[in-house]
Amino acid sequence: MGAGVLAAVLLVVSTALAIWYTARQDARPPSDAIVVLGSAQYNGVPSSIFEARLEHALALYEQGVAPVIVTVGGKAAGDQFTEAEAGRDYLTAAGVPADALLPVQEGVDTLESMRAVGAAFRERGWGSAVLVTDPWHAMRAERMAEDAGIDAESSPTRQGPAVQTRATQLRYILRETAAYLLYRVTGESVAGAPGIG
């Protein structure tokens, strides 16, 4: 009994440390596309979390990391816009050409969205991506992308509410640890929270 508890504790701690380590990395290899994970939008206007991700993706695009930015995410009941549309429109207004934007308007959580992105990549013969999300979400997003057939690395945003305070960071790491372990055990995702679905 004691050994089982110790093993469980070690698994949780090692996963949390891996999430923390991945959050501190910033990979920007030349890729087929930059994939921006969606977050809340309000009547077509990205939330502060989503805006921080979009601004970071824009910077990567301007640095020549990839020729296309993929915006990702569906819409909740009652919404007029998908997260992918809100992201595309934001980047269009920032000067990104229409042919350099691909909205993938599916998914209510990271897993559904990444599977839809994987299908879009296969249709176009793409294989590699740089993922843009919050630091604490990066490890799980990378895993889900790889499971969807994408050679993925992440360049997390360093701006926005998810990285403002130590308490916020700790809360996100704990939530992501639970979400990552759930995904590895069940193959399912956790919906309903910003950056954790």
How are the SSEs ordered, and which strands pair?
Blueprint: H1 2-23, E1 33-36, E2 41-42, E3 45-46, H2 48-62, E4 69-72, H3 83-93, E5 101-104, H4 110-124, E6 128-132, H5 138-147, E7 151-154, H6 166-186
Parallel strand pairs: 1-4, 1-6, 4-5, 6-7
Antiparallel strand pairs: 2-3
Helix pairs in contact: 1-6, 4-5
Please sum up the structure shown:
With 197 residues, this protein is α/β, with parallel strands linked by helices. The chain has a single domain, classed as Rossmann fold.
| Shape, per Cα inertia axes | globular
What do we call the CATH topology? Answer: Rossmann fold
Low-confidence stretches: 192-196
Distance between the termini: 33 Å
What is the count of helical runs? 6
Number of strands: 7
What does the model show?
By secondary structure, this protein is α/β, with parallel strands linked by helices. Helix content is about 50%, strand content about 15%. The chain is built from six helices and seven strands; from the N terminus they run αβββαβαβαβαβα. The strands form two sheets. Strands 5-4-1-6-7 form a five-stranded parallel β-sheet. Strand 2 and strand 3 form a beta hairpin. Helix 1 crosses helix 6 and helix 4 packs across helix 5. The two termini are about 35 Å apart. This is DUF218 domain-containing protein. It holds the Pfam family DUF218. InterPro entries: Cell_Envelope_Assoc (IPR051599), DUF218 (IPR003848), Rossmann-like_a/b/a_fold (IPR014729).
